[in-house]
Amino acid sequence: MPPLYIQLTQLTWPPSVTENLRYFANTGGRMPLEILTKLRSALPKTKPFLMYGLTEAFRATYLPPDEVDRRPDSIGKAIPNAEILVLRPDGTPCAPGEPGELVQRGALVGMGYWNDPEKTRERYKPLPVGVAAREAGMVIPELAVFSGDQVRQDDAGFLYFIGRRDDMIKTSGYRVSPTEIEEVLFGIAGIGDAAALGVAHPVLGHAIVVVVTARPGASLDEPSVAAACREHLPTYMLPARIEIRAGSLPRNPNGKIDRNALAAEFKDLFTTK
Asked: What's domain 2-162's architecture?
């Protein structure tokens, strides 16, 4: 998972690993480009298989090693026995380059959430009529999983992760993916882990808050992190608050950063007293 690779890039690996490690792969979210670059630099003979998967379907897409140089920010195409669709809210397919929800169908899609029919109805649904061989008048028991992830697809069919629909930050009339901000944060020297959050703001809608940790042996200060953000981010994506923490950021049972837990800590930060 990306959080583990972030930690691994902070270590000094023995030279012999470059001769013995044939490939590495990721799951649990898109690999940050900065982390991928560091891994490939440390392991020049090792092939990266960039993957993306859903808890509800195990694995969805992969990018072969021979495509990584051409499109390192892509999550690839559907793996065998899976079909990936990019759909609008009305269930119609998106055009190339148009953001939409990633929907997966095929043999790897689960049957639902254990003892949670409400959440199952939310995520597992029949495809709309006319989409992926779903014909009118036919009762098809197959359910697809509607991921809640926003992606886009290029003209060649390669997919690009934008962000979780529920995590999107709406600030000053813009829709911002936390991933866009975190990519910049991971490129700042000394940062070990990072999370960008949208916190309710009376004027902006959401204000951007970032929480970062330092790599072992490194030191961070708010002015230097803010200066790096100003250098690489447009004004509307600049954080209104930067917090530097010791230790690690909170994670959910899947190993992903628990954004809800972090956001709860800042929910009253910009409210008027």
From this structure: 3-Layer(aba) Sandwich (3.40)
